[in-house]
């Protein structure tokens, strides 16, 4: 129900309202792109709030502004993937070729942030949270992590390692939500993670088209199991080991503070 309502609202704006606006507003491609992104975001949040208010009969608390936690989440996102990327640059497996600057990259960066917001609302805000209420934290975390990993198998550059790496990332971002119960913190971590990869000029989840507009042009040298190959540093065995360690520590801390929910027999 929740996923259907949010999906319908976004699609209605994207293919209904935007079609009408494109026919009557002389704003050009850049203006239409901005209107599309703003409108999709507004439709997403409005439908999410409506589902929470009238279907779940609750107040939305997971989008409460927490500047310190959100900033910490962003810094942690940069630092975590930065360790992998920095190591690969230091060992000569990633090589900086040319600095292009940010002007051409800004539209891609805004698209990355919007994509992260959509993913977090769908996977952690709806799928994980509602499954957790019915099946408990552990089962919900596993279910949404597997689905999150499976979704990314349609990207370019995937390998057997992608199944492991992106599933672990889905579990990591769910664990951050379990620990903080705040979606903005998760969005900040996820967005900072993706933007760090993009700015570095190495593949971001197989998105070669985006890579060509990155501020830094970089080349990748070495075996795919170490560099991540065409999918990017997320598929590096170094990153998989690092994410596994962070995930284990975060889940332990969340468990110690009593953040895990038990299964229930009913779900609203």
Can you give me a brief rundown of this structure?
The protein is mainly alpha-helical and 268 residues long. It contains ten helices and two strands. The protein has helices at 2-24, 28-55, 67-90, 106-135, 137-151, 160-180, 183-200, 208-211, 224-227, 237-256, and strands at residues 94-99, 216-220.
Descriptive report:
This protein has ten helices and two strands. The protein is mainly α and about 270 residues long. Helix 2 runs parallel beside helix 4, helix 3 (about 65-90) runs antiparallel to helix 10 and helix 6 runs parallel beside helix 10. The N and C termini lie close together (about 10 Å).
The secondary-structure element order is HHHEHHHHHEHH
Number of helical segments with 4 or more residues: 10
Beta-strand portion reads under 5%
Largest sheet: 2 strands, antiparallel
Q: Which quaternary structure do these chains form?
A: single chain
Shape: globular
The count of strands amounts to 2
Low-confidence stretches: none
Query: Could you give the order of strands across the largest sheet?
Result: 1-2
Ends: how far apart? 10 Å
Average pLDDT, all residues: 91
Evaluate the radius of gyration: 19 Å
Helix content: 55-70%
The computed structural class is mainly alpha
